[in-house]
Amino acid sequence: AQTVTQSQPEMSVQEAETVTLSCTYDTSESDYYLFWYKQPPSRQMILVIRQEAYKQQNATENRFSVNFQKAAKSFSLKISDSQLGDAAMYFCAYRSRRTGANSKLTFGKGITLSVRP
Amino acid sequence: GAVVSQHPSWVICKSGTSVKIECRSLDFQATTMFWYRQFPKQSLMLMATSNEGSKATYEQGVEKDKFLINHASLTLSTLTVTSAHPEDSSFYICSASVRREYNSPLHFGNGTRLTVT
Which is nearest to A100 in space by CA: B93, B78, B98? Predict the structure, then answer.
């Protein structure tokens, strides 16, 4: 079974600065997807960024980028130029390709990010 | 695109009654729908996976007779909490997998906050 570990329960960043959220995972599979989801106080799950395991290039989405280290099974999220609206709970998630549409998301415990004005 | 509508957003019910939560994919066909439960400040815990026209697959420890899941069509899945008790109070979130796009991220409903008094 796959596991996702987010060891930091909370982090804080000054507005306009950069913060990195850590995530590690464990799997015996070679083909899978990794995601970062954001959950603001509204509790709506919002996709931040995704990474296909077969791609070596790190994914980027505007101010958000990942550092994907497949051999180390590490998938960290970097948020540049942090904004007040970035304050939320962030979840790292894993999804296998093996079971197709039935493939569930396995979530880490999440990290609460606060942004100081 | 890929909008998932979940209803109701919040519900209060008395102990012993049943509550139904609906999850609809508005602009796509959802091959598979997933139901999650989330306690405050915690991660999402998968309860069950449902496929249209077949019985749901429940995660270990989830009472199938208490949490009835019906996936009647490619756009609708329902979760019924039967004989609800205060310990069933929680936040329930559905998500859907886009048909023929199993490698896409899951799309989430806005969640339902259930309070059992």
Answer: B98
CB A33 within 8 A of CB A104: no
Q: Which residue has the tokens 């329960």?
A: A9
Judging by DSSP bridges, how do beta strands B90-98 and B19-25 pair with one another? Answer: unpaired
CA angle A63–A68–A74, rounded 5-degree value: 120
The two beta strands, B112-116 and B10-13, are: parallel
Better-predicted residue by pLDDT, A15 or A104: A15
The three-state secondary structure class of A14 is strand
Under 8 Å between Cβ of B77 and B6: no
**Residues of A engaging B, defined by a Cβ cutoff of 8 Å:** 33, 35, 42-45, 47, 50, 52, 89, 91, 95, 97, 100-105, 107-110, 112
In which band, very low, low, confident or very high, does the pLDDT at A97 lie, cut at 50, 70 and 90? confident
Average pLDDT, chain B: 91
**Gap between the Cα atoms of A19 and A11, Å rounded:** 9
Cβ of A44 within 8 Å of Cβ of B111? The answer is yes
- A49: nearest CA partner in chain B: B105
pLDDT class for B111, splitting at 50, 70, 90? very high
Say if B44 is an interface residue toward chain A (CB within 8 Å).
Answer: yes
Provide the pLDDT confidence category of residue B103 given band limits of 50, 70 and 90. low
**Confidence band (pLDDT; 50, 70, 90) for B1?**
low
Where in chain A does DSSP place strands (E)? 3-5, 10-14, 19-21, 24-26, 32-39, 46-52, 60-61, 64-69, 74-79, 88-96, 105-107, 111-116
